[in-house]
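Our platform keeps sequence and structure together, in a single record for each protein. Such a record has a labelled line for the sequence and another for the backbone structure tokens. The tokens are whole numbers drawn from a learned vocabulary of local backbone shapes. The remainder of this section carries one protein's record, kept here as part of the documentation:
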Amino acid sequence: MVNNLFMRRRKKNIAGYLFILPWLIGFCLFTAGPILFSIFLSFHEWHIFDKMKWIGIENYKKLFADPLFYHSLKVTFYYAAISVPVGLVVGLFLAVLLYQKVKGTSVFRTIFYIPSIVPVVATATLWIWIYNPEYGILNFLLAKIGVRGPDWLYSTKWVVPAIAFMNAWTAGPNMIIYLASLEDIPKVYWDAAKVDGTNSWQRFWHITIPFLSPTTFFLLITNVMGALQTFAQAYIMGGGGRGFGAPANASLFYCLYLYEQGWSWFNMGYASSLSWVLTLIIFTLTLIIFKTSNKWVYYERS
């Protein structure tokens, strides 16, 4: 009887492994494998068509002596410093606006979320037209109120803020997550605050914001990660400052520079070292956010 029980369990285990085998193969081939290979590559000099050459930490030494490495980091952090707060504020504003129990709210929720599911290429192409200094609708509207609009994507001063402000167009995911969190706030706190004579702003600042702080904490981490890995917008809208966009590498984002090293110049080893330095930067920033969260994140205790 013990042997029969053992055989049944063994058959169930084998069946379970067979069911997850396609996923395991895909994970090893397309996730774990490339990650391990990129670590291996970062210690080599390899131009795809040439033989690999072990060079130890030379790629990392070269990286920290590369002025474009620091410039691309500066551009990326500048972008993140604008796009992350803008995305969070716009998402929260829309969530509070659409939380109101008025007719047609579900329709407006759908309308505001739709831009988030539009492909990045289509969104970037649309905003290239909006930002066009000659016939773009933004400068046209500014001219109507007597303001001369800048060159936006063609300006070294405005290209990064222009791409960052476009991020507000895709604040739908932040909006949805904030909406879900608003639904979870016990209404008894707002009612009690009303009885105490507080106004709408006081209730928002002292009740809503603290209750939403865990959600803000989560969105801050995910938005920072996304901002530091921005590529498509920079590639399409700015070209790194080398194509149609602003000159002087004004829009040379970190991931765009990484892409150029790997797929334009075929410096695969150097590109791999760039990717692992970015991973370390993201990990460090995430750790800092976690370590400081106890000072501003509020969790309701039951």
